[in-house]
Write a structure and sequence with these properties.
By secondary structure, this protein is of the alpha+beta class. The chain has four helices and seven strands, in the order E-H-H-E-E-E-E-E-E-H-H. It has one domain: Alpha-D-Glucose-1,6-Bisphosphate, Chain A, domain 4, CATH 3.30.530.20. InterPro entries: START-like_dom_sf.
Amino acid sequence: MRLHLKTIVQQDFLSVFNAFDEQLFRELAPPYPRLKLLRFDGSAPGDVVEVELQTGIKAFRWTSLITERKITDTAAWFVDEGQEVPPPLRNWRHKHLITKQGSGAFIHDIIDYSTGYKVLDLLLYPLMLAAFGMRGPVYRRLFRQV
């Protein structure tokens, strides 16, 4: 299942791309489930990001490996792929793409996920949309024109 969210911001795409660091990661964390950051290496291939999802009942580990990173004249991106994902997920791939748009930029969150069951993927879609949809206002607040 693919989720593609796009947010326009008022800073140039390279400034936005270079701001994808631990501080931004913490700003983007949803209110639920709470995320406990265990490891954040960065966004270069081979880097690892590891969190513990704290639901209040049980904690789940989520480990992602950065597998791609590229910068061109009009776009920049990196990809994290789940190595250990919480149930019911089986597969996770998140492309963080920033594209040039005039003097500003578009931030794309392109998420491909699977539980192994199409019906369950569809049922999870509104939850994914809600969790990642909360990033838009954060992006707009942080990436105003400077």
